[in-house]
Each structure stands twice: as C-alpha cells, then as structure tokens.
Design a protein that fits this description.
This protein is α/β, with parallel strands linked by helices and about 425 residues long. The strands form 3 sheets. It has a 7-stranded mixed beta sheet. Helices cover about 20% and strands about 20% of the residues.
C-alpha cells in the first residue's frame, strides 16, 4: 500500500520495489560506461535508452507481440513496444506539457489508484484519427453508456445485468460505465461484489471505461470506510480498459488522478473525469480533485487544439453545488473553455436514475447535458456523425430526445436557409 505514494513521480524499475528516478540509474559495471541493466526501465510505455533519452513506444501488431524484452524496448505485460519516437530527456514527465510541475501526493486515498501510472506525453500527442479504408473520410463514432447498475443481487441472479452487457451490439467502438455499480446497503462494499461486476463487464467485446460513482467508495463509509471502499474500486477497476487489446488511439491518464482518462478518436476528444457529489466527501479532498482535473481537462483541450471538432465529457454526477467549481464559468470552470471553443460539447453522466436532457447547459448554445436513465435500462447508444453531430438512441422503443432526433446541434434549419438562397 505504501508503494502508491513512493512511485518516483510515476516511474518504477523492472517490476521491483525499488524506485529509481530517470537520470539516476546506475550501470552494472559501476563506471557509467556499461549500458546493460539500463535497457528495460518499465514506465508504462516509456523507456530510457542507453544514452538516457526518454522515448515513447507505440503498440506492436497483435501477431508480433512476444513475451520477451523486445531487445531493450519496454515490455508491457504480454505486449512489447515496436516503434518509438524521442521525447525530451527530463524528469518532469507527468504533466500535459513541458512546463507543468509535478503534483506532490497529498496522501488522500482518492488520488492514487493502484497499477502502474501512465506517463503523459510532453509534446503535442501524435494522435491521428483512425480512418476507414475507403476515401479517408471520418467514420461515425459509436459508443454505449450504462451506469447505476447493478444495485440488487437479483440483477445478477436473474441475469439482468449480465444480459445488459452481453446485448451491447458489436458496432460499438467502446463502452462507458458512469459509476455506481452497487447499492451499499446491499453489497456492504464487499470486494467480491466489485470483482463480480468486473467479470461481467468483461463480457463486452469493446473496451470498457468506468468512472467512480459515490456509491462505489464514498458511501462505503458506514460499512468498511470510504478509504477501503476506494481501495476496492481502484484495485478492481484501475486500468480496467487494459483487459482489452490496445485501442487504435493513444490513451492518456491524468498522472495524479489515474482514474481520469482522455483520448482522441475520429476528431472527437473524450475526457473521463471523477465527479461525485456526496455528503461523505471531505471538502478539501473534493476541491483538490476538482481543481486538478479541471486543470488537466483544460490541458487536454489545449494540447489537442486543432485535432478535434467536438468534445465528450463523461462523469458520474449531475451538476450541483458540490461540483459547481468544475462547471461554472463564473468560477473559471469548464464552461468558460466551452464558451471560448464554440464547438459542440456534451456532458454525459448518471446518478439520477432517469433520463434528462438539458440544452444550453450553463446557458451555452454549444453545451448539452445528457443524464442517462441507467439502472435496468438498456445502455444508451450514442452516434457521432461527421465528428460533430450527436444522435442518442435509448433502445427501448419509447424514450426520445427533443434536442437530437435530427442530430445535435440541430443543423437542418441552417441547411433549409441555405437551400432557400440557392447555396446548396
């Protein structure tokens, strides 16, 4: 457990307990000339060459993966790195850009999920959209969102929750679970509940990204304590997406809040953040999380500027007084950035157990909020066409959106006007 707080700014050596920062790695001969022993310094996709240069690795093709050292390139579990591009040699490797300082650990349990931290790139990420084999156009993005499930044991026993996951169609690029995968009065935050949910989510044929809900750790306080609840969550769901083969996009984790991830896919920027609203949440800890992830979210937007046409933010909780500091433009929250961007931004979350749509979220024409119904409802299908037009399918033959039946933002009126004046 202590290892969480002594990871040498996110780097550890050869799966051992000892931490050695970059630049301080001894040669085996002791004279600094022998490079053996320096070859495989495992830092989740980053390794140090014989001359001390940091390099970032891409994934090998599935057929080329080997269970060996890749001739000095970092081994990541069963998967080895193939091609690497040089990065600036510096110990400041945890930020979204070269000037970001390393954030010191506060020791709060919510800031250090277990597992090997991923190092964020120093330069603008070399993320390119995954294009279809036809004429190189942007293909539709399809993903599914579920959450606030399972709550009751009968959802396991009656095959309800397993069926929800199994029935997710194969057209999905990925799946999001927006948190609250237990009702604490039922599960008592027993570790076996977390593990059972994880086993079922692995039925998905597409990678699953899961963000914590307040039920998943904070509401464990009366039973096993919030700290131990958080330990159960991070031990079970930290790096959960790595169960599936590496995606065709670069995944970036927030260095000091590793449950948060970001990636660019088909010119859409996805950001998953840990947003919960609960009276068990310690105010200082909540403010720390919101401050750090707001800063990181804005960094991801700035780093990837020019490479996306819309943004999807995934979280657990609806807007409230407890997370106003993350959203409010008056408090320099994300709405301030959304207003400046002027492109479609959608916040998708759970927690409310019913469908809610809010156009002009925080009074911004380009900001949409969708609360999925969750619970025993079918996972919601979200389709993004042309990288910036959103469609929502609740797959129940009943629920519809007023905002988005013709796509959001609604562009038909603009097209009609252009047709009227002969522009199309």
């Amino acid at each position: 457990e202590d290892r969480d707080f002594s990871y040498c700014n996110g780097v550890y050596v050869n799966n051992e307990d000892e931490c050695i920062p970059f630049g301080d790695i001894p040669s085996t001969s002791g004279n600094g000339n022998d490079s053996s022993g320096r070859e495989c310094i495992d830092a989740q996709g980053v390794f140090r060459s014989h001359r001390g240069t940091l390099k970032r690795c891409d994934w090998m093709a599935i057929g080329s993966r080997k269970n060996k050292n890749c001739n000095g390139k970092t081994e990541l579990g069963r998967m080895c790195c193939e091609e690497c591009s040089s990065m600036s040699s510096t110990s400041n490797i945890r930020g979204g850009n070269k000037d970001q300082s390393v954030t010191e650990s506060t020791g709060n349990p919510s800031t250090h999920p277990t597992g090997l931290p991923t190092v964020s790139p120093l330069e603008r990420p070399s993320i390119t959209p995954v294009l279809p084999p036809n004429e190189g156009g942007i293909k539709d993005v399809v993903f599914y969102v579920l959450g606030d499930a399972p709550y009751q044991r009968k959802e396991f026993d009656d095959d309800q929750f397993p069926k929800q996951v199994r029935d997710i169609p194969n057209d999905s690029d990925f799946v999001f679970h927006v948190g609250d995968m237990q009702r604490t009065k039922t599960s008592l935050c027993n570790i076996t509940w977390y593990q059972h949910v994880a086993d079922i989510l692995r039925y998905s044929t597409s990678p699953v990204f899961i963000t914590p809900g307040d039920n998943d750790w904070l509401d464990c306080e009366p039973y096993i304590g919030a700290k131990q609840g958080w330990g159960h969550w991070r031990n079970t769901f930290g790096f959960f997406d790595s169960y599936w083969q590496p995606p065709k996009f670069k995944l970036v984790r927030q260095p000091n809040l590793l449950e948060n991830v970001s990636f660019l896919y088909q010119r859409v920027l996805f950001v998953v953040v840990h947003l919960v609203s609960d009276y068990f949440d310690i105010e200082s800890e909540r403010k720390y999380r919101h401050t750090e992830q707001l800063k990181w979210t804005k960094q991801q937007i700035a780093i990837n500027e020019g490479f996306f046409d819309s943004i999807v933010i995934i979280g657990h909780s609806p807007p409230s007084a407890l997370n106003r500091d993350f959203f409010s433009a008056k408090e320099s929250g994300i709405s301030e950035t959304v207003s400046e961007l002027g492109i479609p931004v959608v916040y998708i979350h759970g927690s409310g157990h019913k469908f809610v749509e809010e156009e002009q979220f925080n009074k911004l024409d380009n900001f949409l909020r969708i609360q999925i119904p969750g619970r025993t409802s079918n996972p919601v299908k979200v389709t993004i066409k042309n990288s910036n037009v959103f469609f929502f399918d609740f797959r129940d033959g009943n629920t519809t959106t007023q905002c988005c039946e013709n796509g959001w933002p609604y562009i038909s009126k603009l097209n009609d006007a252009m047709l009227q004046y002969g522009s199309l």
